[in-house]
Amino acid sequence: MPRAKGGFKTRQRRNKVLKLAKGYRGARSKLFRSATEAVDRALNYAFRDRRVKKRDFRSLWIMRINAASRLNGLPYSKFIFGLKKADIQIDRKVLADIAISDPKGFAEISALAKAQL
Hints:
- The chain has helices at residues 8-20, 32-71, 76-85, 92-101, 103-116.
- The chain is mainly alpha-helical and 117 residues long.
């Protein structure tokens, strides 16, 4: 039986990797072996960073809330504790947005939290 050389399927597989490596610099976009290494690494980083992005945004929201709540006389931890006691269920993303776009509204929320402490 004759040996099956790399034909259509191999070319298809290599073209798929090279298409993903489009825009990379130098050999990484032209040569299959270099492109495979670059694409594998890039896909691993993409997978990891989709999860890291969620952590980064949460920490950003916490920093913004902390800054705004300190302007209203409460540190972040006491502010959040006061919200929990007041049974105000607003997530950190929305709180951070209110802190930036509507400081007066955030001051009212902060006053409610302070009243519960």
